Amino acid sequence: MDKVFYASRYDRGDADYINCPMNKEEYIAFYEALVSAEKVQLKDFETHPFSVYEGCMPIEVLASRGVDTMRFGPMKPVGITDARTGKRPYAVVQLRKENREGTLFNLVGFQTNLKFGEQKRVFSMITGLENAEFMRYGVMHRNTFINSPELLSADFSMRKNPDIYFAGQITGVEGYMESAASGLIAGISAARRLKNLEPLKLPADTMTGALTAYISDPYNSGKFQPMGANMGILPDIGVRIRDKKQKYGVYAERAVDSLKSELERVGL
């Protein structure tokens, strides 16, 4: 603990993370060990483009994309001040508390396909973890998703067999709220179809509408990657507003008005 320190990024909220800072020399040594470490031999189906979300990339694959890639990802040092030096570290690994007692921590953003022995060897190079006891090693999980732009319409029904609906993470909407919303839209759409009612078409300037448009746009077929809610997928408001809070407020008001109009149109 004389090498690491508790802090949250930009000192926001409680200091819930243990921060393991690295200087450039330590980082380069860690990077070289990581990219040369022995990995688990993957099966053919595990290497399919739709097997792993871009946002859940194994740390060693991320590192292989360039020596500084991790410093712009899970090891980014922005918003962190090294308690020992008073300066921002070259790179930092954050540990998140896993139990109430604070006896278990996980490495944030360190999904991995390294062999267990290699995980112990390489991750022990992280500042402060030289003598850490590893209670559970990392194992990649498959976030399988379908090529929705080729297969699905905006109501989450299949183009070729509209009696079949998909919803949730498998459609390529990323996140709990997004997955729940896709289920609601699929359910409403199926119910309206059974009653021979006009389909609900969420406007593209609503967040869920923008996501349904994204997962059903044939242009995205073949290069499709899951997408979570973000302001970047909404149509531009056409007005330059510098204050981000005010700007997003305008986006929200527009979305509410559009949604109300659509609900009134279909009688909901």
Would you spell out the secondary-structure blueprint of this structure?
Layout: E1 5-7, E2 17-22, H1 24-36, H2 59-64, E3 91-97, E4 105-107, H3 116-123, H4 148-151, H5 176-194, H6 207-216, H7 244-266
Antiparallel strand pairs: 1-2, 2-3, 3-4
Shape: globular
Number of domains: 2
Order of helices and strands: EEHHEEHHHHH
* Distance between the amino and carboxyl termini: 58 Å
How many helices does DSSP assign? Answer: 7
Strand pairing plus helix content: what structural class?
Answer: alpha+beta
Compute the number of strand runs.
4
Name the poorly predicted regions: none
Largest sheet: 4 strands, antiparallel
Estimated helix fraction: 25-40%
- Strand coverage percent: 5-15%
Which radius of gyration do the C-alpha atoms yield? 23 Å
The strand line-up of the biggest sheet is 1-2-3-4
Averaged pLDDT, please?
88
Q: Can you offer a commentary on this structure?
A:
With 268 residues, this protein is an alpha+beta fold. The chain folds into two domains: 5-123, no CATH class; 148-266, FAD/NAD(P)-binding domain (3-Layer(bba) Sandwich). Helix content is 31%, strand content 7%. It has helices spanning 24-36, 59-64, 116-123, 148-151, 176-194, 207-216, 244-266; strands spanning 5-7, 17-22, 91-97, 105-107. A four-stranded antiparallel beta sheet has the order 1-2-3-4. The mean pLDDT is 88.
